[in-house]
Write a structure and sequence with these properties.
Elements (H helix, E strand, L loop, with lengths): L3 E5 L3 H12 L4 E5 L5 H10 L2 H4 L5 E4 L10 E4 L11 H22 L4 E4 L4 H12 L6 E3 L1 H17 L6 E2 L2 E2 L7 E2 L5 E2 L2 E2 L6 H12 L1 H9 L6 H15 L4 E10 L5 E12 L2 E5 L6 H19 L5
Parallel strand pairs: 1-2, 1-4, 2-3, 4-5, 5-6
Antiparallel strand pairs: 7-10, 8-9, 10-11, 12-13, 13-14
Helix pairs in contact: 1-9, 4-5, 5-10, 6-7, 6-9
Length: 309
């Protein structure tokens, strides 16, 4: 069966997401952007790599968001990055108009699709996309938790000098300063990392995880991360298209789980063909649960301040 994924935004994250999807032969891709010629040129370049990379999926570029028609999944990466000194409220207002406008078009032309939000502030934009689309809650989700968890796993593996594949963990909460690395569910080869790393050092790694994106921005001087974010988004696409029932931390709509209601926030979920098939309530320490609630409160406050007609 022909599968189609539309990727909104032909910047570094969107382009890399599109490239990974076709290289894995997951689906045909339409890459979309408002800049004339940009998605067309990047799609053509990727398509010309097919004989070398050995993929058979098609990729095209377009400036017409109606081309999202018949998409199984729409990955939203378009938007402005957070500039130095810019508050999350300011970023939400700047990107909110873009998200609302494009999601309205997506909802008309691809009413059966699943939306994966990558644009920041991620949890706020995910909630806005859900409200704008009118889609069922299980069909609108945000990527952040997978990326944050990947960064935490990478830093822990580096510290312990072990394979990152040995690290099991989840980072919950908002994709931002209030994220919550869950120490009580973090292991290396089944061994709790708290037995392997001292508290002070572990706290330093957690702080580095929270600033993982900013660290890259500071090193690059211009631009932000795109390899790990695109890999994280594609992992979600692969789980949904493959109906693989993978458990990931993603920004999902809560209706009372963890004592949180009417807000999107990062929690463990099962991803399958229908989107979010189950939300898991895992046991958290009092500190972790309080951190998750505070994270949700920060997201809610930012969303309430978002004035978009």
């Amino acid at each position: 069966m022909k599968r189609k994924v539309s990727v909104i935004g032909a910047g570094f994250v969107g382009t890399m997401t599109a490239q990974k999807i076709v290289e894995k032969n997951l689906a045909d891709v339409t890459l979309l952007d408002i800049v004339e010629g940009l998605p067309q040129g990047k799609a053509l370049d990727i398509m010309q790599s097919a004989p070398v990379e050995g993929f058979d999926r098609q990729i095209t570029g377009s400036n017409d968001f109606a081309e999202t028609e018949h998409s199984d999944i729409v990955v939203f990466t378009a938007g402005f990055p957070r500039a130095p000194g810019m508050s999350r409220e300011e970023l939400a207002l700047k990107n909110g108009g873009i998200v609302k406008s494009v999601v309205e078009t997506v909802a008309r032309h691809a009413p059966a699709c699943i939306i994966i939000m990558v644009t920041n502030p991620l949890d706020v934009m995910t909630h806005l996309a859900w409200k704008t689309s009118g889609f069922p809650a299980e069909k609108v989700m945000g990527m952040g938790g997978i990326l944050d968890s990947a960064r935490y796993r990478a830093f822990l593996a580096e510290e312990l000098n072990v394979s990152a594949g040995n690290i099991e963990t989840m980072v919950l909460g908002s994709h931002g300063d209030t994220m919550v690395p869950v120490d009580t569910h973090t292991t290396a080869g089944g061994i709790p990392v708290s037995r392997l790393i001292g508290r002070d050092r572990l706290d330093a790694i957690i702080e580095r995880t929270k600033n993982g994106g900013a660290e890259i921005v500071n090193l690059l001087k211009s631009g932000s991360a795109w390899h790990a974010p695109s890999s994280s988004a594609v992992a979600m696409v692969e789980a949904i298209l493959g109906d693989s029932k993978r458990i990931f931390p993603v920004s999902a709509y809560l209706t009372g789980q963890y004592g949180i209601e009417d807000m999107h926030i990062g929690v463990p979920v099962k991803l399958g063909a229908s989107g979010i098939e189950e939300i898991y309530e895992i046991t958290l320490s009092n500190k972790e649960l309080e951190g998750l609630k505070q994270s949700a409160g920060a997201v809610s406050k930012t969303f309430e301040g978002l004035k978009i007609s």
